[in-house]
Amino acid sequence: VDVPPAVNRKLRVLGFPDPDFVTLTGQGYNKMIVWLEHEKIRLWDPKDRKNLENFSNKSWANVLKDYCDELGIDASSYTDSNQQEKLRVLDQLLSFAIHDEYQDKKDSKGLKLDTAALPRYDPSDQKCMATFVEPVNMLLEKLNLPKLDANCCDEDVVEAVKCVHARVVPSSAGGTPVGGNELNLPVGFECGDEQISEICVVLRLLHMNELRVLQSHINDIINALQELTADPKTDSRVGRVGR
Question: CB pairs under 8 A, 24+ apart, for 112-121?
Fold first, then answer.
């Protein structure tokens, strides 16, 4: 069974002496479990760890099962010959140890998070619709509306399209829509009909507006997740079991 790099990274984070050498056979595996208990998890008192340290004990697997059971880790299928199961148990013990160490540092105010380094979404940085600025400006000029700046962001373009749409589409109270196909807005395909082309342009712009709204919602979710990971709230009930 190949050991995934994530296991090596967890061992490296925890300060294991040789994180790049992970074995799932022999006493090397047993020693990793004992090291985690001695140095990181410390669930049992030192006198209660003797059975876990006795590698020659034929019932060592049962001792490990009892140990994992107290930690809330399922090791019921653990056998010395099942390397896949041994890897799963080791990975869960590593995750538990990392959570325990994080909780210790958090409780002792020894944890410092650089939230300023986290990337933030800024709508003013989004300029995916820059190619639409010039044709939209032509349409704005025709409608006697203020034109967009050449370096405007996508949200400004979207708002301009909304203004154009409000002028072009007749309201429920009546009115004459503004026509004309001389602006040559990009349709993206050939349709062979000027009126259909105008309709397709408006539909395309409205669809892009819907995509921008969707992107804004996604960015809001990403920001919320970044704030959560920058200042996580942990449940002490699933933290350290005993020490």
Answer: 113/230, 113/231, 115/230, 115/231, 118/226, 118/230, 119/226, 120/223, 120/226, 121/219, 121/222, 121/223
Whether the model pTM is above 0.90: no
The enclosing H or E element of 223 equals helix 194-230
Question: What is the identity of the amino acid at 157?
Answer: V
Residue 241 in contact with residue 71, Cβ under 8 Å?
Answer: yes
CA angle 12, 15, 18 (to 5 degrees): 65
- How many whole angstroms separate alpha carbon 8 and alpha carbon 24? 13
User: First vs last Cα of the chain: how many Å apart?
Assistant: 33
Q: Tokens at residue 125, please? A: 């940085």
Burial 49-63 (b: 16+ CB within 10 A, else e): beebbeeeeeebeeb
Phi (first) and psi of residue 62, to 5 degrees: -70, -35
CB atoms near residue 30 (< 10 Å): 18
Residue 122's H or E segment, with its range, is none
**What is the rounded distance in angstroms from the CA atom of residue 155 to the CA atom of residue 70?**
54
Going from the first residue of the chain to its last (243 residues), give the mean pLDDT of each consecutive group of 10, the final group possibly shorter.
Answer: 86 88 88 92 90 89 93 90 92 92 78 58 63 83 84 82 76 49 57 68 76 84 76 52 48
CA distances from 211 to 9, 205, 206, 219 (A): 38, 10, 9, 12
